[in-house]
Write a structure and sequence with these properties.
10 helices; single chain; alpha/beta
Length: 232
């Protein structure tokens, strides 16, 4: 039986982004929300998650976007045995011709790196304006990103540019749920389909939303996650 749920946030966010999931699941599970926003590279991000779970048993790791890369780094380098994994709007490598137009993606990422150096707060605000629906914007308006250091946003972009776990995901032998948004402009559905084909026995669920299904479709997302966890 799963006892602990570990939610790892993505780029330009903090554990506060999981407010809805914390409120929903805290009555039945221990909920752990590692903060990787201060990490300067993916090894540090993985280490932060490891320090939060090393003494836990019967836990599920859930990573959103950049948070999934931290999960993969953790599994690749530490002897942990989670009961299950959940990848939310995620990728094993951000810039690749396998499922993203490498040229346009690299150009867009290069622009974000440049913008982030010049004005990190505006880059943050523009990012959220582009990925949320009306429902998601309403949900996010209630969240306050405590301790978010805008000057450190560039570190996450560098991780997205450099991380590559395409070979590693084929070694995953843990029940895995992949959740994708059909309207995601950051991580297209093809990226989730790519992982689904390479992670043996994985489940792929698609919601009618963008990059933040836990905000845009919170009720459906929570029910989907709960059903998966109860089945482990």
């Amino acid at each position: 039986m799963v006892k602990t749920l570990v939610f790892i946030h993505g780029w330009a966010s903090t554990p506060d982004v999981w407010q809805g999931q914390r409120d929903y699941f805290a009555g039945n599970y221990e909920v752990i929300l590692p903060d990787i926003s201060r990490a300067e590279d993916i090894k540090e991000a993985g280490g932060i998650v490891y320090n939060a779970v090393w003494d836990k048993k019967d836990f599920v790791l859930l990573g959103w976007s950049l948070g999934w890369l931290a999960v993969l780094e953790l599994l690749q380098n530490f002897d942990l045995k989670p009961k299950g994994l959940v990848a939310v709007n995620s990728i094993p490598k951000f810039c690749t011709k396998d499922y993203l137009g490498t040229g346009p993606t690299q150009t867009h990422l290069a622009k974000m790196l440049k913008d982030c150096k010049r004005n990190p707060r505006k880059t943050f605000e523009d990012f959220y304006k582009s990925i949320l629906s009306g429902a998601g914007k309403s949900a996010l308006s209630d969240i306050r990103f405590e301790n978010l250091t805008y000057d450190k946003l560039i570190y996450g972009l560098r991780m997205l540019k450099s991380c590559d776990y395409r070979d590693f995901i084929q070694k995953i032998a843990v029940p895995t749920l992949i959740i994708a948004g059909s309207k995601d402009k950051i991580i297209p559905l093809q990226a989730s389909e790519y992982m689904h084909k390479r992670i043996k026995g994985s489940l792929l669920k698609v919601l009618d939303c963008g990059h933040m299904p836990f905000c845009d479709k919170a009720d459906e997302f929570n029910a989907m996650l709960e059903n998966f966890v109860k089945g482990l």
